[in-house]
Amino acid sequence: xxxxxxxxxxxxxxxxxxxxxxxxxxxxxxxxxxxxxxxxxxxxxxxxxxxxxxxxxxxxxxxxxxxxxxxxxxxxxxxxxxxxxxxxxxxxxxxxxxxxxxxxxxxxxxxxxxxxxxxxxxxxxxxxxxxxxxxxxxx
Amino acid sequence: xxxxxxxxxxxxxxxxxxxxxxxxxxxxxxxxxxxxxxxxxxxxxxxxxxxxxxxxxxxxxxxxxxxxxxxxxxxxxxxxxxxxxxxxxxxxxxxxxxxxxxxxxxxxxxxxxxxxxxxxxxxxxxxxxxxxxxxxxxx
Lengths: 139, 139
Prior knowledge:
Distance between the termini of chain A: 42 Å
Radius of gyration of chain A: 15 Å
Largest sheet of chain A: 6 strands, mixed
Structural class of chain A: alpha+beta
Oligomer: homodimer
Helix content of chain A: 25-40%
Strand order of the largest sheet of chain A: 2-1-6-5-4-3
CATH topology of chain A: Nuclear Transport Factor 2, Chain: A
């Protein structure tokens, strides 16, 4: 397995844990450090293992059923660090029906004694497919 | 000047170029490679120097006057790569008045023969200060 494949495998485990609402699996993906960072779509940045895991716990508690699938995945190595960039397809289903939305994900992985671990996740809301192109501004 | 100070100086030049709507200064901050990436708030990911610069050009053409100031800035080194994380305070003014909004920025810099260069910028919309906390979901 190449280094890139190892990193993509951890990235797959991240989205599988998210889809399964599995906090233990999510815990195993992240590096347990006070400096890891996480930005959920529309949220301010969370700092540190404790706050990041608490946020996943709250999200999992408030999500009945969903499937988060990465597509357009790319990986790039920079020595001890690597990025995985992907679009996240989020399919949520309930008794009221199903809803598909998209987010753009930036995931940073660091190589450690116990393998590649997630140290930063930044996801942002994407426009619904087929909607007009966003106005060209930064705000 | 420490390595961290060098990186923060390039980060400051990025936000100054953005505030000044200065495409030449913006150009000098980025690494000119086909694999650099940029996500403007609410936009899909742009790939490669050409598309990224074209997007700044369009943004600058469509922005009359604004000031983008980073706060809560943190920097962390990972060998040849570094991240700078910050909140972006965007103050736009026009004849109709002024508007302040916020975004969360993740900036990745790579060390090169010509200094530290921006290789990824991911910015996402933040809730207006004082607005209710976002619902704890990923979508």
